[in-house]
Known about the structure:
Layout: H1 5-37, H2 39-75, H3 83-106, H4 114-120, H5 125-131, H6 143-150, H7 154-167, H8 172-177
Amino acid sequence: xEYSKKNAALFSLVKAFQVExxxxxxMLFFWAVRNFMGVFSNIFFGFTGxxxxxxxxxxxxxxxxxxxxxxxxxHGDDVKQNFGLTMGIxxxxxxxxxxxLLVLSKAGIIGNFxxxxxxxxxxxxxxxxxxxxxxxxxxMSPLVFIMTGILPLLYPISTWIGFxxxxxxxxxxxxxxxxxx
Length: 181
């Protein structure tokens, strides 16, 4: 059976929704403790949300990289080591689509999309809350646009690195524990 690049790429979208599902629960915990912890809660839970993206997408990339690498080595399938980047780019498309809607909202073309944007991108809600405290798009800092442009890049970067590591059969434990001379 040939490695299905189409299925792997489409399933990366499912993984992106899994990231947001887990991020939603991180956001719920954030809401529960933010009055008690203050700005530290934004930083702590913001880092946790980012790690959700990195861990889930890198894990998916590693699993797919291992499958694709074996198929390429044993059966000559046409899957290159940079295919993880393609999967990650597909996974970040919903984030950039919601960013486009946020831009349209800020321009006044559509209504206030900021509350929906924060919930749909729950993984980095806590970091965005630092720059956009209220739910009104008019009060939003331009820093949010910078964040929304950069943060989704974690999807392709983590998926690509995970894919490439296992595609090339790199043993991370050996690289970290034993110094290569």
